[in-house]
Specification:
- With 79 residues, the protein is of the alpha+beta class.
- It has one domain: Metal Transport, Frataxin, Chain A.
- It is built from 3 helices and 3 strands.
- It has helices at residues 9-19, 54-68, 72-76; strands at residues 23-28, 31-36, 42-47.
- It has a 3-stranded antiparallel β-sheet with strand order 1-2-3, covered by helices on one side.
- A hairpin with a 5-residue loop joins strand 2 (31-36) and strand 3 (42-47).
- The protein is globular and about 30 Å long.
C-alpha cells in the first residue's frame, strides 16, 4: 500500500477522531495528543504539520493498527 504524501497532521487528527474513537486530549507545541479507551487506553502524539513525513505517518498508523487490531489500509480507507 502506498501512503499518501500530502496528508496533513490536522486531517489525520480529524479522521482518527471521527472514525476511530480517538479524542483530542491536549496539545503540546505542534503535537496533538489523542487518546482512545477502546479496546484499552492508548495515547498517541500526532504532529500538526502541513504534510506528515512518510516515516512519521507509517509509525503512527502502525501503532494505531496494532492497538485496534486492524490494517493500516483500513485506517486510511476513508481519507
Amino acid at each position: 500500500m502506498k501512503l499518501p504524501r500530502d496528508l496533513s497532521g490536522d486531517e489525520l487528527v480529524k479522521h482518527l477522531c471521527k472514525h476511530w474513537e480517538f479524542q483530542r486530549v491536549h496539545q503540546v507545541g505542534s503535537h496533538v495528543i489523542l487518546q482512545t479507551e477502546r479496546p484499552s487506553p492508548h495515547r498517541i502524539a500526532v504532529p500538526e504539520h502541513t504534510a506528515l513525513r512518510i516515516g512519521t505517518l507509517n509509525a503512527i498508523l502502525g501503532a494505531i493498527a496494532s492497538h485496534k487490531n486492524v490494517t493500516k489500509e483500513e485506517i486510511l480507507k476513508d481519507i
